[in-house]
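During the second half of the funding period, the structural biology subgroup turned its attention to how the target accommodates small molecules. The most pressing case was heme C, which had performed well in the primary screen but for which no bound structure existed. We therefore specified the complex as follows and requested a full 3D prediction, including the ligand pose.
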Amino acid sequence: MRRFSKIVSTTSIIAVAITGLSLVSTTVSAAGSSKSDIEKGQDIAFSRKKGNCLACHNIKGGQLPGNIAPPLVTMQQRFPDKTKLRAQIYDSTVANPNSIMPPFGRHKIISDKEIDLVTDFIYQL
Ligand code: HEC
Protein backbone atom coordinates (compact mmCIF):
# COMPACT_ATOMS: atom_id res chain seq x y z
CA MET A 1 0.00 0.00 0.00
CA ARG A 2 2.81 2.34 0.92
CA ARG A 3 4.50 1.53 -2.35
CA PHE A 4 1.30 2.21 -4.26
CA SER A 5 0.92 5.65 -2.72
CA LYS A 6 4.52 6.38 -3.56
CA ILE A 7 3.79 5.60 -7.22
CA VAL A 8 0.69 7.77 -7.10
CA SER A 9 2.55 10.72 -5.63
CA THR A 10 5.42 10.32 -8.12
CA THR A 11 2.91 10.26 -10.95
CA SER A 12 1.21 13.40 -9.71
CA ILE A 13 4.54 15.18 -9.36
CA ILE A 14 5.31 14.32 -12.97
CA ALA A 15 1.84 15.47 -14.03
CA VAL A 16 2.32 18.80 -12.24
CA ALA A 17 5.75 19.18 -13.84
CA ILE A 18 4.35 18.54 -17.32
CA THR A 19 1.51 21.00 -16.76
CA GLY A 20 4.04 23.56 -15.56
CA LEU A 21 6.19 23.05 -18.63
CA SER A 22 3.31 23.49 -21.03
CA LEU A 23 2.25 26.66 -19.19
CA VAL A 24 5.78 28.03 -19.55
CA SER A 25 5.96 27.27 -23.27
CA THR A 26 2.55 28.86 -23.86
CA THR A 27 3.67 32.01 -22.07
CA VAL A 28 6.92 32.18 -24.05
CA SER A 29 5.23 31.88 -27.44
CA ALA A 30 2.51 34.35 -26.44
CA ALA A 31 5.12 36.92 -25.41
CA GLY A 32 6.93 37.19 -28.75
CA SER A 33 6.35 35.94 -32.25
CA SER A 34 4.93 32.44 -32.36
CA LYS A 35 7.50 29.71 -32.69
CA SER A 36 6.20 28.57 -36.02
CA ASP A 37 6.75 32.04 -37.54
CA ILE A 38 10.36 31.94 -36.38
CA GLU A 39 10.79 28.48 -37.89
CA LYS A 40 9.25 29.66 -41.16
CA GLY A 41 11.59 32.64 -41.12
CA GLN A 42 14.56 30.35 -40.58
CA ASP A 43 13.52 28.16 -43.52
CA ILE A 44 13.29 31.23 -45.80
CA ALA A 45 16.61 32.64 -44.53
CA PHE A 46 18.45 29.34 -45.01
CA SER A 47 16.85 28.36 -48.32
CA ARG A 48 19.20 28.87 -51.26
CA LYS A 49 16.23 29.77 -53.45
CA LYS A 50 14.90 32.41 -51.02
CA GLY A 51 17.07 34.39 -48.59
CA ASN A 52 20.30 32.43 -48.98
CA CYS A 53 21.60 34.52 -46.08
CA LEU A 54 24.17 31.81 -45.23
CA ALA A 55 26.04 32.54 -48.47
CA CYS A 56 27.45 35.58 -46.67
CA HIS A 57 26.46 35.46 -42.98
CA ASN A 58 27.21 33.08 -40.14
CA ILE A 59 23.85 32.34 -38.47
CA LYS A 60 23.32 30.01 -35.51
CA GLY A 61 22.01 26.65 -36.73
CA GLY A 62 23.10 27.18 -40.33
CA GLN A 63 25.45 24.87 -42.24
CA LEU A 64 28.53 26.01 -44.21
CA PRO A 65 28.16 29.75 -43.67
CA GLY A 66 30.09 32.36 -45.63
CA ASN A 67 32.16 35.00 -43.87
CA ILE A 68 32.05 38.03 -46.16
CA ALA A 69 29.39 39.69 -43.98
CA PRO A 70 29.09 40.22 -40.22
CA PRO A 71 27.81 37.21 -38.24
CA LEU A 72 24.17 37.73 -37.31
CA VAL A 73 24.37 37.63 -33.51
CA THR A 74 22.93 39.69 -30.62
CA MET A 75 20.54 41.30 -33.06
CA GLN A 76 18.36 43.02 -30.46
CA GLN A 77 21.41 44.90 -29.23
CA ARG A 78 22.48 45.79 -32.78
CA PHE A 79 18.92 46.72 -33.76
CA PRO A 80 16.84 47.73 -30.72
CA ASP A 81 14.25 48.96 -33.20
CA LYS A 82 12.90 45.95 -35.10
CA THR A 83 11.63 48.12 -37.96
CA LYS A 84 15.24 49.18 -38.67
CA LEU A 85 16.26 45.53 -38.86
CA ARG A 86 13.43 44.90 -41.32
CA ALA A 87 14.51 47.95 -43.34
CA GLN A 88 18.07 46.56 -43.53
CA ILE A 89 16.77 43.27 -44.93
CA TYR A 90 14.27 45.03 -47.22
CA ASP A 91 16.90 47.30 -48.80
CA SER A 92 20.47 47.23 -47.51
CA THR A 93 21.53 49.97 -49.96
CA VAL A 94 19.70 52.62 -47.90
CA ALA A 95 22.23 52.25 -45.05
CA ASN A 96 25.16 51.51 -47.38
CA PRO A 97 24.81 52.48 -51.06
CA ASN A 98 27.73 50.18 -51.93
CA SER A 99 26.30 47.18 -50.07
CA ILE A 100 26.74 43.84 -51.78
CA MET A 101 23.80 42.46 -49.80
CA PRO A 102 20.86 41.96 -52.18
CA PRO A 103 17.98 44.41 -51.59
CA PHE A 104 15.50 41.61 -50.88
CA GLY A 105 12.36 43.75 -50.76
CA ARG A 106 13.14 46.40 -53.36
CA HIS A 107 14.11 43.72 -55.89
CA LYS A 108 11.18 41.51 -54.82
CA ILE A 109 13.54 38.58 -54.23
CA ILE A 110 11.24 37.49 -51.40
CA SER A 111 7.74 38.78 -50.59
CA ASP A 112 6.87 41.35 -47.90
CA LYS A 113 5.37 38.56 -45.78
CA GLU A 114 8.56 36.52 -46.15
CA ILE A 115 10.63 39.54 -45.07
CA ASP A 116 8.43 39.81 -41.95
CA LEU A 117 9.09 36.13 -41.14
CA VAL A 118 12.85 36.43 -41.76
CA THR A 119 12.90 39.55 -39.54
CA ASP A 120 11.14 37.60 -36.75
CA PHE A 121 13.79 34.89 -37.04
CA ILE A 122 16.82 37.22 -37.22
CA TYR A 123 15.53 39.45 -34.39
CA GLN A 124 15.66 36.62 -31.85
CA LEU A 125 19.26 35.61 -32.67
C1 HEC B 1 25.84 38.59 -50.94
C2 HEC B 1 26.08 38.60 -49.52
C3 HEC B 1 24.91 38.79 -48.57
C4 HEC B 1 23.73 38.09 -48.51
C5 HEC B 1 23.24 36.98 -49.42
C6 HEC B 1 23.02 38.60 -47.37
N1 HEC B 1 23.74 39.59 -46.77
FE1 HEC B 1 23.23 40.61 -45.09
N2 HEC B 1 24.91 41.74 -45.24
C7 HEC B 1 25.90 41.57 -46.18
C8 HEC B 1 26.98 42.53 -45.92
C9 HEC B 1 28.27 42.68 -46.72
C10 HEC B 1 26.58 43.29 -44.78
C11 HEC B 1 27.37 44.42 -44.07
C12 HEC B 1 26.72 45.75 -44.31
C13 HEC B 1 26.72 46.15 -45.75
O1 HEC B 1 27.80 46.10 -46.39
O2 HEC B 1 25.63 46.47 -46.25
C14 HEC B 1 25.28 42.75 -44.39
C15 HEC B 1 24.57 43.23 -43.31
C16 HEC B 1 23.43 42.62 -42.81
C17 HEC B 1 22.77 43.00 -41.60
C18 HEC B 1 23.22 44.08 -40.63
C19 HEC B 1 24.18 43.41 -39.66
C20 HEC B 1 24.71 44.34 -38.62
O3 HEC B 1 25.10 43.82 -37.56
O4 HEC B 1 24.75 45.54 -38.84
C21 HEC B 1 21.69 42.19 -41.43
C22 HEC B 1 20.69 42.18 -40.29
C23 HEC B 1 21.66 41.31 -42.57
N3 HEC B 1 22.73 41.59 -43.38
C24 HEC B 1 20.71 40.34 -42.77
C25 HEC B 1 20.67 39.50 -43.87
C26 HEC B 1 19.63 38.54 -44.12
C27 HEC B 1 18.47 38.29 -43.18
C28 HEC B 1 19.93 37.93 -45.29
C29 HEC B 1 19.11 36.88 -46.00
C30 HEC B 1 17.71 37.19 -46.21
C31 HEC B 1 21.16 38.51 -45.79
N4 HEC B 1 21.58 39.45 -44.90
C32 HEC B 1 21.79 38.14 -46.96
C33 HEC B 1 25.93 40.63 -47.19
C34 HEC B 1 24.90 39.73 -47.46
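Two results from this model are relevant to the next phase. Residues 45, 51-53, 55-57, 68-70, 72, 78, 85, 88-89, 92, 96, 99-102, 104, 118, 122 surround heme C (CB under 6 Å). The mean pLDDT is 84.
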